[in-house]
């Protein structure tokens, strides 16, 4: 491709709203442009990177026996109503009506569509297992789109769905797809981890996220310092062996704590450690309110709370609701003598001796609180976030944290959708059985951003060879020089004939502009035709290492092949 004939609008300045490297560089290097908040156009270079990632995904998916199809982005509300998610998915689902008043959504995901399709077309166990996938644009009305392609309202995703007659069949395909995803991200040269995860609105159990390690990641990975254990912090169980202090239980006493509202303020005022304080928070779990207790130095894990109650939704009650339900502002909230809501507590709470909690009266707290004596807890459970330094759940080492960007997610859905939507097959005995399902997603556009986030330097992007929009950047210093123009055009034709992807900078720009743009775009190898063109000698530069060589055109092909094989 001749650079004079394509659209690569590079910028020298960093866009004011671009917070992270990938967003800044993809914008500056002319790969993307923003149309609206969270909505982007992929310019020619960006489209080529997406194509390369999609090709890797297709190859790995096809190797598992999965088959590609394409489903509509516009989905009838009736399908979502069948599954029940029309009412529970939340405001991220973009909803609209046609001219006849019929309700639709723009596809945030495709469980309902694929389930209805297979329900109508597959009737016998002889047609199972079946794995179908697509690569398509998805839509989610994110409350706060940010970080460029990492959190948008319109994005490109590969989603796959498998259908089975037995759990063992699902397990087998799940492992195949898990390995395929591992292969995809390895081929994209990413530093990533597969971590235990929560299925969220998707439903189902046994799920893993594929996380690219990055300081700008919005997810926290809890991992062992000595083993392969890794989990999203939401899902990491706490296996601390708590011990109750050996001290005599004292008499419960209410004390004045005027204007002391936070755990830090109360513990400092009463001269007690935060580990002896009890934090009380009111949550709405589906349609009922629950008071949740943790130790003062711990934080409530709402995913664990949701799983404890097998709830569809969990949200922290706002201050006004808390006051309305319990008759007390948050700063003095406590569990003693609370009868109107259920009380659940983290395991650590039951080991507190002579602790502190709110008195459900403004400016007052209780001291000498002993939970098993003074609080009516319906059940104790693991309800807190794991912390750095806690024992690893697999019994090996201690927990450390890292930030991660989610680029893939695999689920065992079970019969969550097939039962709700009547997707059954006839077994060997002619009896109708619900299909067992799996679901597997890769964020293609997000993977592009994750690669850009990990592969860059102070000059610009540094694309791995198999992801790069072009393998070679051919630059003619001066196209008005007859010898340079002749050799550059000769090399352009030669490399195209040899099936290389070449971007030929034939523009009438100054050398400094061409070199700056080349570094910014970040193609693996740059070949510069300059003053030694008359001798058939060019300059070759490896973008990743900065290595530079002067080489005769006759040795160029072998050298380029060798260098690309290592990039």
Automatic annotation (TrEMBL):
Annotated ranges, domain Aminoacyl-transfer RNA synthetases class-II family profile: 38-464
Gene3D superfamilies reported in the protein's UniProt record: Anticodon-binding domain, Bira Bifunctional Protein, Domain 2, YbaK/aminoacyl-tRNA synthetase-associated domain
E.C. number: 6.1.1.15
Cell location: Cytoplasm
A molecular function (GO) term: transferase activity
Catalytic activity of the protein: tRNA(Pro) + L-proline + ATP = L-prolyl-tRNA(Pro) + AMP + diphosphate
The keyword rRNA processing is annotated on this UniProt entry: no
Domain of life per record: Bacteria
Coarse class of the protein's main subcellular location: cytoplasm
Keywords: Aminoacyl-tRNA synthetase, ATP-binding, Cytoplasm, Ligase, Nucleotide-binding, Protein biosynthesis
GO cellular component, one term: cytosol
A Pfam family matched in the record: tRNA-synt_2b
KW Repeat (keyword) present: no
GO process annotations (BP): prolyl-tRNA aminoacylation
Entry remark concerning the domains of this protein: Consists of three domains: the N-terminal catalytic domain, the editing domain and the C-terminal anticodon-binding domain.
Subunit record text: Homodimer.
Function of the molecule: Catalyzes the attachment of proline to tRNA(Pro) in a two-step reaction: proline is first activated by ATP to form Pro-AMP and then transferred to the acceptor end of tRNA(Pro). As ProRS can inadvertently accommodate and process non-cognate amino acids such as alanine and cysteine, to avoid such errors it has two additional distinct editing activities against alanine. One activity is designated as 'pretransfer' editing and involves the tRNA(Pro)-independent hydrolysis of activated Ala-AMP.
Stated family: Belongs to the class-II aminoacyl-tRNA synthetase family. ProS type 1 subfamily.
UniProt-recorded name of the protein: Proline--tRNA ligase
Protein's organism: Robertmurraya kyonggiensis
